[in-house]
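Batch job 17 of 40 flagged for manual review because the log was empty.
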Amino acid sequence: MNPKKNKDSEILPTKHKNTANYSYLCQSKITYLLRKHLKFETEMKVLKFGGTSVGSAQRMKDVAKLIADGEQKIVVLSAMSGTTNTLVEISDYLYKKNPEGANEIINRLESKYKQHIDELYTTEEYKQKTLDFVKSVFDYIRSFTKDIFTLFEEKVILAQGEIISTNMVTNYLCEQGIKTYLIPALEFMRTDKNSEPDLNYIREKLNVQLEAHPGQEIYITQGFICRNAYGEIDNLQRGGSDYTASLIGAAINASEIQIWTDIDGMHDNDPRVVDKTSPVRQLHFEEAAELAYFGAKILHPTCVQPAKYANIPVRLLNTMGPTAPGTLISNDTEKGKIKAVAAKDNITAIKIKSSRMLLAYGFLRKVFEIFESYQTSIDMICTSEVGVSMSIDNTKHLNEIVNDLKKYGTVTVDHDMCIVCVVGDLEWENVGFEAKVINALRNIPIRMISFGGSNYNISFLIRECDKKKALQSLSDMLFNGKDKL
């Protein structure tokens, strides 16, 4: 058969075969073919609910109403809000060899869960079933108070929050007569020796689970937790449960990934600082990543990468207002629009000035190697013929970095700075866009400007004390004024 005439072969565009996305696109194609030939009846959606969305018995009931709509789906749940922090506190007591302190916190947390269980279930069967399970989990946590405690044991303890919440919701759905199956994340979610998700393993093991338990309306699983390459309990760290949902969505070629939180999508500015913000209805993946990196806490900047490469849209929705349209993130760009503004605090600016830099190759390499040696990432960078300015958000090794930089020039440091990032269709051909942004900041002292590194953002380094004024001025000019783009 001529592959050019094979309909399935056209799923993977030829123009992408030499890009970094190639492996992800291949995996997406393989998943599509598997689904086609295994005759999956529908393309499932993946829904993720955060800790506040399952933070009480009533919230769990609300989530159950949202997901029990007759459509087949995979639901990823976080631990109940506050649980992970409490488990961290228990671990801290155990690190300090204080089992009495740990047991006191364990007992308090278990009592809280007993109350949630009493409020959640109406039948003695499911109430007792869940009580027995939760008791076994807390007895397991107590077992760690008797032995040596390391990072491995801490990760095991931290995994229990998601394990409890998923069991509680699964049992509640079953009590309501909804066909529900719990797929333990530890059965399919794994990282490789580089602590990166093992995509082939995830896809293979997850599809085995789905095929082994057909006919369910809802498949529940845990976010955040996984196993590492050695089979030990671990976690995904960055992005947590959002990352889990994105990985699952890519693994099954989901029709959509929904991330449910307690806010109706990404806003066009920080609602904690600025008046009259509005949800942004559509974002490109790169725009969302820029906003997340520079301060939008609703999403981790890297957690939707698997969805981006598999070309699966991600929708941000509000559990407290489920009818709101939220924000749709995809690979589509709305041309000619500035979408949103975000700000990142606690930034430090470092400037190194050296006449020896003039026409000297290798200078920047030496500078960057210093930051690399102290594992400190750079947010912004601006250069001139005799100097280079950089910003960092991690000052753990600031003194050592400054001392090493002094070998190559005069170093100055500015503290208490803030990066303001404006995101949208900022292709350089769009005449006047950057001028309009700069005009909004005409009364704000600007330390650095970064433009051209991305087609989606322009960033400014200003003093933290000017942040509120800057953000409000940008909102007034870009979103609330007569000259709105």
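Reviewer: the log was empty due to a logging misconfiguration, but the result itself is present. The longest helix spans residues 99-120. Unflagging and moving on to job 18.
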